């Protein structure tokens, strides 16, 4: 969605061509103008986020043609061929030199004038509500049905709930609340957002259970509910989302079983269920059938049991997190045989015993970090001195009193690095 301030846009060239082709006319065609209602609405939105700037004096002309960075417009043509111009994006909050959006003051708030922008597609706030408490307002339920992206990132002074405020956004594709104090449950009406592709609600104060209706979101690709206070079971309906490739439910209070229905997520590449309360059922065997997985993290649950032989079909995995699960028994040699793309493995803080399999030496060319701390491992490591020198402190072995390390490995680091056994 390009800003009209860009003179290289195809639309600009199109209108320039029309003007030139009518240069001999007494009434040259003029670029369409933003309506006075939309212009006034944008002024009021800008004044609500930062009243210390005189937006009307700084940007007195048509704001579609001389706007602050982050305010974008588009041309629209109706069935009669009439062309108009409208606000389609509001990106608020300074991000970087390359994205110097309008800055927010310490008293920033949300203006109801947002509902007077009937063509709005994207609404983005970054580090805008950081000091003065602002409640997510009721009028959001009246935002334009054209809205496709609703994004709040790093707004710790934003409070309230989503109840009844997003149900009408039928064209919404991206819903992001990251680093806010928005709380309450995910409204069941979220299941009616049939066009949505991303739901990221991380590092907020959401609680309660995940609505079963999420399973109706057939276009959803990313579901991130991490670092909240969700509880109860993960509904089987999550397995009914065919396009899902990123699922992060970490750092919540989910319990009972990890649902077997997840095996149906054959497009899933990233799975993080770490630091919940899943217990006593072991590492799910069905993970071995999810051949698309590239990262799987289960750390911080009480799953128990041995590490299962599930690795034959998971050769594409690059990251495995199995820390603090209460795992027992030996590390299977099949992990070294089949995981030929893995660069991160954490098996620390379990009750694993026996040798580190010789087959782990086959992983030297790909491993960047291996954490085996605080187990009951013994015997000699199957790694060369060159590998140990390359990986350095990311080879973590402390807390394994019977694990033997070659002297040449102990002396490799000219900075005095030494394994803590």
Automatic annotation (TrEMBL):
Keyword field contains Amino-acid biosynthesis: no
UniProt entry tagged with the keyword Signal: yes
InterPro entries documented for this protein: Leu-rich_rpt (IPR001611), LRR_dom_sf (IPR032675), PGIP (IPR051848)
Keywords: Cell membrane, Leucine-rich repeat, Membrane, Repeat, Signal
Signal peptide start-end: 1-23
Subcellular location: Cell membrane
GO cellular component terms attached to this protein's record: plasma membrane
Pfam families membership: LRR_1, LRR_8
Protein name: Leucine-rich repeat-containing N-terminal plant-type domain-containing protein
Source species taxonomy: Eukaryota, Viridiplantae, Streptophyta, Embryophyta, Tracheophyta
């Amino acid at each position: 969605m390009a800003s009209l301030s860009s003179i290289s846009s195809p639309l600009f060239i199109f209108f320039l061509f029309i003007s030139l082709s009518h240069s001999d006319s007494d009434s040259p065609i003029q670029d369409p103008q933003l309506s006075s209602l939309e212009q006034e609405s944008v002024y009021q939105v800008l004044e609500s986020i930062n009243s210390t700037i005189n937006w009307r004096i700084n940007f007195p002309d048509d704001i579609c043609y001389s706007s602050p960075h982050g305010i974008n417009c588009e041309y629209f043509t109706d069935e009669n061929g009439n062309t108009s111009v409208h606000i389609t994006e509001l990106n608020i909050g300074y991000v970087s030199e390359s994205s110097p959006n309008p800055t927010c003051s310490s008293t920033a708030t949300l203006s109801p004038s947002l509902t007077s922008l009937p063509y709005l597609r994207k609404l983005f706030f970054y580090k805008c509500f950081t000091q003065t408490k602002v409640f997510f307002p009721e009028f959001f339920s009246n935002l334009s049905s054209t809205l496709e992206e609703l994004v709040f990132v790093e707004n710790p002074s934003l409070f309230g709930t989503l109840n009844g405020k997003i149900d009408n956004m039928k064209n919404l594709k991206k819903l992001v609340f990251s680093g806010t104090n928005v709380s309450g449950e995910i409204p069941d009406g979220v299941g009616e957002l049939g066009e949505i592709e991303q739901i990221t609600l991380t590092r907020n104060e959401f609680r309660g259970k995940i609505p079963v209706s999420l399973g109706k979101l057939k276009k959803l690709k990313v579901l991130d509910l991490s670092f909240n206070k969700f509880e109860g079971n993960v509904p089987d309906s999550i397995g009914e989302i065919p396009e899902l490739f990123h699922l992060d439910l970490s750092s919540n209070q989910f319990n009972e079983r990890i649902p077997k229905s997840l095996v149906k997520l054959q497009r899933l590449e990233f799975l993080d269920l770490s630091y919940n309360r899943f217990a006593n059922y072991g590492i799910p065997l069905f993970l071995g059938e999810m051949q698309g997985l590239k990262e799987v993290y289960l750390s911080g649950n009480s799953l128990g049991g041995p590490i299962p032989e599930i690795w034959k079909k998971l050769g594409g995995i690059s990251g495995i997190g199995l820390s603090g699960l209460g795992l027992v028994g030996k590390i299977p040699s099949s992990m070294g045989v089949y995981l030929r793309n893995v660069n991160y493995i954490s098996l620390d803080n379990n009750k694993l015993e026996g040798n580190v399999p010789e087959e782990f030496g086959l992983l030297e060319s790909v491993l960047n970090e291996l954490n085996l701390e605080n187990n009951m491992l013994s015997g000699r490591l199957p790694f060369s001195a060159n590998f140990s020198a390359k990986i350095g402190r990311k080879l973590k072995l402390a807390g394994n009193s019977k694990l033997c390390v070659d002297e040449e490995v102990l002396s490799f680091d000219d900075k005095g690095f030494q394994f803590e056994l």
